[in-house]
Recover the amino acids of this structure.
């Protein structure tokens, strides 16, 4: 009997404690959310949503929804991008930016065929828009269609010689497909463009470590990566790789 | 001799309850070992060697509470060594699943200490040694390590008992199995701050606190993916996590990204079904500062738990013919055939394919179940359009307009109706001199938001209707609009030939 009473007491106490901590977390989460509501990006979205109510023409509406989609894209809020870009396209179907943003968000949502369709439309509307080729490369990479991805990264680079992310992704795919000279060249190009571009050092490290068996170069690149991103999520793992190479 | 035997019997009789009681206590004790907490998540915590201190404090606490039996770390050192290798990705994760009989423990307490913007974030999780499901977890953040540990100690003392474990393990087979995979530091600011590792650990602890979810310890699941993955820019890397997780019985994985702005942090999260790699739930949460990481993890974990247990159902749609666009509550969700995770409740579905009459209907989605729907689309009866064209050929303009109007009335939500609108407006304007009617028809056409070419033709019609109505200002405005926004179309080419 005593045991049962004790058990019930513990259970009710646990429930009470749990509800207290939940309440605290809930309050803190709401508090943090309220702070974020005043952040500049969210304020900008709020203003644009207000403005769209009063505009007269479809072109203006499309422009505003595209601006909202751009901000949501920066934030990475996929649901919000899809919604705002689709609205923009409804009002102005031949606007490359909204198709591009929609395609980009479809990649994150895993709708790769839809992504390719939207990016093709964006490219059709503006064939010198390097970011659309870059995202097409990403969509094809996700589809494991590496030759197509490479082609698109190359096109992006042709249009924008400073598109560092395209060099990186081209370097990654070249590593995967065994085109090691191209991989090394493209990853090094990232560093030439920006010596603090951390992921290129990590990728070069993996290239030297796993493919080219240049251990000393691998270690120095891994170390450089850790010095640039000391708190990266995989830091424990990278340190282990360094240790395994005797670094 | 008899005296000795009598004495022995009396002693045995007196000691029996003590023996039985001690046996009972040992049997009900929670047998565990505490592993060094991982402090390598952030460089600051590693420098301070926080992991050892945290593990020692938690181990000391367990030892001080009767309901726990704590196996000395030295006694199972070889297992602990293997475990550390697994955590570091150097050994097969199955090495984490120990043999309770030989190790003499049923549970392991693992944890993480990280230092984020001067705050210690400590997470302690006790996992079942044979399936790596979290049976108790608690995390806390504080400016002082001892305060954070104090909160965890409090949770262990107050909450963590045999009844709690029994309740958690009672329906293991029913509960969805979930693991937190990774959170990518997405933009430059996020890469510099490196919250991703700490946040994944915090979220893991939060996920481990639900009774209705079987959260798999991420030190185990993470080790399932220990290959050297090359890092992409702007896209999540391809990996075998879905397959590997599925093989180990993990049904869902949570991953996401963190973006930091000057005055806000955005946490984007996604839940994937590992059997199909399909994205089933997606969300985004903004916070004001890194102090909000733990409350945000609480909030996100609640949304995910709710989604997996109460809110989501699956709709499996096939259509004849295939390739139709699927819209749920007006939102485009891809093409058929498709398996779509959607919120429970009554959902409106629309299925559209050129040349076919759109299907519209409602469907009841129930949580945790798959609703299958096969839709046979009916072809648009082109005979009606053909009739209208026959009237046109015979120059029976009234008959043609009436036939197009009938088609619009009957099949107004098909793409073919766009053409009917255009032809009707064209006839009204060019052959019936009904310019006002034509203007209304073309305006109705562009308000349907058809595709670019037809929309441009609609505006061209509006321009000409204004011209015929004598409103050259509006005609010129419309012309400029066509040239500005539909420059690549035939309508623009034609419009450019007319001066107002």
């Amino acid at each position: 009997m005593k045991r049962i009473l004790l058990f019930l007491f513990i259970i009710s106490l646990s429930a009470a404690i749990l509800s207290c901590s939940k309440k605290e977390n809930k309050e803190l989460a709401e508090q943090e959310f309220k702070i974020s509501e005043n952040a500049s990006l969210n304020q900008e979205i709020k203003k644009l949503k207000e403005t769209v109510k009063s505009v007269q023409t479809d072109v203006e509406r499309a422009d505003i929804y595209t601006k909202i989609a751009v901000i949501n894209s920066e934030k990475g809020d996929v649901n919000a991008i899809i919604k705002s870009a689709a609205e923009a396209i409804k009002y102005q179907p031949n606007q490359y930016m909204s198709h591009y943003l929609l395609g980009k968000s479809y990649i994150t949502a895993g709708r790769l065929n839809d992504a390719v369709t939207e990016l093709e439309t964006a490219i059709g509307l503006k064939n010198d828009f390097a970011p659309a080729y870059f995202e097409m490369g990403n969509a094809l990479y996700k589809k494991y269609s590496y030759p197509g991805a490479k082609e698109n990264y190359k096109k992006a680079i042709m249009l924008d010689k400073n598109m560092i992310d395209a060099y990186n992704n081209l370097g990654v795919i070249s590593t995967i497909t065994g085109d090691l000279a191209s991989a090394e060249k493209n990853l090094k190009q990232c560093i030439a463009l920006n010596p603090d571009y951390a992921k290129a050092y990590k990728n070069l490290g993996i290239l030297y470590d796993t493919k080219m068996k240049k251990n000393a170069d691998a270690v120095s690149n891994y170390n450089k990566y850790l010095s640039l991103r000391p708190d990266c999520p995989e830091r424990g793992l990278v340190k282990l790789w360094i240790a395994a190479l005797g670094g | 001799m008899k005296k000795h035997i009598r004495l022995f019997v009396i002693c045995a009789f007196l000691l029996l309850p003590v023996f039985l009681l001690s046996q009972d206590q040992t049997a009900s004790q929670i047998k565990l070992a505490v592993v060094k907490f991982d402090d390598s998540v952030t460089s600051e915590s590693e420098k301070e060697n926080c992991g050892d201190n945290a593990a020692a404090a938690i181990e000391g606490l367990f030892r001080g509470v009767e309901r726990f039996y704590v196996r000395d770390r030295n006694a199972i050192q070889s297992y602990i060594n293997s475990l550390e290798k697994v955590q570091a990705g150097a050994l097969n994760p199955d090495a984490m699943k120990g043999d309770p009989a030989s190790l003499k423990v049923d549970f392991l307490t693992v944890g993480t200490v990280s230092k984020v913007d001067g705050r210690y974030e400590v997470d302690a999780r006790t996992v079942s040694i044979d399936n790596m499901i979290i049976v108790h977890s608690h995390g806390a953040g504080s400016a002082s390590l001892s305060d954070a540990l104090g909160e965890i100690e409090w949770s262990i003392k107050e909450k963590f008992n045999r009844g709690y474990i029994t309740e958690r393990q009672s329906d293991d087979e029913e509960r969805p199995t979930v693991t937190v995979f990774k959170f990518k530091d997405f933009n430059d600011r996020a890469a510099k701050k490196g919250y991703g590792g700490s946040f994944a650990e915090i979220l893991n602890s939060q996920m481990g606190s639900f009774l209705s979810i079987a959260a798999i310890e991420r030190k185990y699941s993470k080790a399932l993916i220990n290959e050297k993955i090359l890092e992409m820019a702007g896209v999540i890397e391809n990996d075998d996590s879905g397959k590997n997780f599925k093989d180990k019985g993990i049904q869902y994985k949570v991953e996401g990204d963190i973006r930091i702005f000057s005055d806000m942090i955005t946490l984007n999260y996604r839940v994937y079904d590992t059997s199909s790699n399909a994205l089933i739930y997606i969300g985004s949460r903004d916070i004001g500062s890194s102090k909000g990481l733990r409350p945000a993890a609480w909030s996100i974990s609640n949304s995910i738990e709710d989604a997996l247990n109460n809110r989501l159902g699956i709709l499996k749609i096939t259509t004849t013919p295939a390739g139709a666009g699927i819209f749920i509550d007006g939102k485009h969700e891809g093409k058929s055939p498709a398996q779509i995770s959607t919120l429970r409740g009554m959902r409106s579905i629309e299925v559209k394919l050129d040349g076919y009459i759109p299907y519209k209907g409602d469907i009841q989605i129930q949580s945790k179940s798959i609703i299958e729907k096969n839709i046979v689309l009916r072809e648009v009866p082109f005979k009606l359009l053909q009739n209208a064209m026959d009237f046109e050929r015979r120059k029976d303009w009234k008959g043609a307009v009436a036939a197009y109007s009938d088609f619009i009335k009957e099949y107004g939500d098909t793409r073919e109706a766009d053409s009917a609108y255009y032809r009707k407006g064209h006839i009204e304007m060019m052959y019936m001199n009904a310019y006002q009617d034509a203007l209304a028809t073309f305006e109705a056409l562009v308000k349907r938001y058809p595709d670019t070419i037809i929309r441009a033709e609609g505006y061209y019609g509006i321009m000409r209707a204004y011209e015929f109505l004598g409103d050259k200002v509006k005609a010129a405005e419309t012309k400029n609009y066509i040239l500005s926004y539909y420059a690549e179309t035939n309508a623009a080419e034609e419009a450019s030939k007319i001066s107002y």
Residues 13-20 of chain A have pLDDT under 50 and may be disordered. Chain A touches chain B through 82 residues (CB under 8 Å).
